[in-house]
Design brief:
6 helices, binds flavin-adenine dinucleotide, alpha/beta, 30% helix, 6-stranded parallel β-sheet, Rossmann fold
Length: 263
């Protein structure tokens, strides 16, 4: 398998970097090919602006989606963005690895998504009409690929449990797993989350690294989160509401988008 790791931590001696190296060693030992986008090392530009669209007349208004669509179609995206799109096309599995910062990903990784997910590539794909709302959520250019988050968090596991004060981790990560990964087509595996990491000792590291290596070995077989596919008949078009009665008993909000019959 071809595995792309998009890595967002500023320090090469960090816990995150050590865990990434463990994952890479395990993947390579199992015959997978690995490429890494180490965003801080690459000095990744995290903001979308005029400089992303060299073909735009200078001083003209920047309509981001339109400029992105035109640049993607014309092959005039900047080299850094085009390079990352090429890596996404190469990868069978994409891993986003980051420390949880303010209940989400570091800004540099959000900026990678914003710039690399060009219009016509990751969104704005497929027919948009009153019969079909594009190829999204399980369909699209990244369909058939797998994706997974590897996250470290300072908080305890119980803080992120069903009754935890921070909210359940699956809900906090939903904008990423569902909105950024399932949306352009990925099947998304359950996240690997290491909790309470800030004072992790050597024994804790060995345990965490061993758990992560096991997840890397199981990458191809791990069942994905059973997010519903947009065009599988579960949603009304064009309101995009879940058809009444499909949710499992007690499921509300985000949870309704899980198809419990798939596990
Ligand atoms: P590091 O600081 O590099 O290391 C953590 C510990 O692991 C250290 O004690 C280190 O000694 C130890 N360690 C053990 N073995 C090794 C090894 N082999 N290599 C390297 N280190 C090792 N947490 C939350 O839960 N929710 C939040 O919303 C949140 N927001 C944050 C926002 C900001 C701006 C910041 C700075 C932190 C936030 N945190 C939050 C905490 C954050 O998630 C953790 O600090 C982070 O996950 C730790 O990962 P790291 O790679 O930076 O760890």
């Amino acid at each position: 398998m071809n595995v792309l790791i998009v890595f967002a931590h500023p320090d090469p001696r960090s816990l995150n970097a050590a865990l990434r190296d463990e994952a890479v060693r395990e993947l390579e030992a199992n015959g997978h090919e690995v490429r890494i986008s180490d965003l801080y090392r690459m000095e990744w530009k995290a903001t979308v602006d005029h400089d992303d669209f060299p073909d735009l007349p200078s001083g003209g208004r920047l309509r981001v989606a339109q400029a992105s669509r035109e640049a993607f179609a014309a092959g005039s995206l900047t080299a850094d963005v085009a390079g990352e799109i090429e890596k996404l096309r190469w990868a069978d599995t994409v891993i986003l690895q980051f420390p949880l910062w303010w209940f989400s990903m570091p800004a540099i990784l959000k900026g990678w998504i914003e710039r690399v997910y060009a219009c016509g590539f990751a969104y704005g794909v497929g027919e948009h009409s009153d019969r079909r709302w594009g190829d999204r959520y399980g369909e699209g250019n990244l369909a058939g690929r797998r994706a997974m988050l590897v996250v470290t968090a300072g908080g305890w596991e119980s803080h992120y449990g069903e009754r935890g004060i921070n909210g359940p981790i699956e809900d906090l990560l939903f904008p990423i797993t569902h909105g950024m990964l399932h949306y352009p087509g990925f099947e998304v595996l359950p996240a690997f989350v290491a909790y309470r990491v800030d004072r992790m000792d050597e024994a804790g590291f060995r345990r965490t690294a061993s758990d992560l290596r096991a997840r890397m070995r199981a990458l191809a077989e791990t069942p994905p989160i059973p997010y519903r596919h947009q065009n599988g008949g579960d949603y009304l078009i064009p309101s995009m509401e879940l058809r009444p009665g499909l949710e499992a008993d007690g499921d509300r909000g985000i949870r309704m988008h899980l198809d419990r019959s798939r596990g």
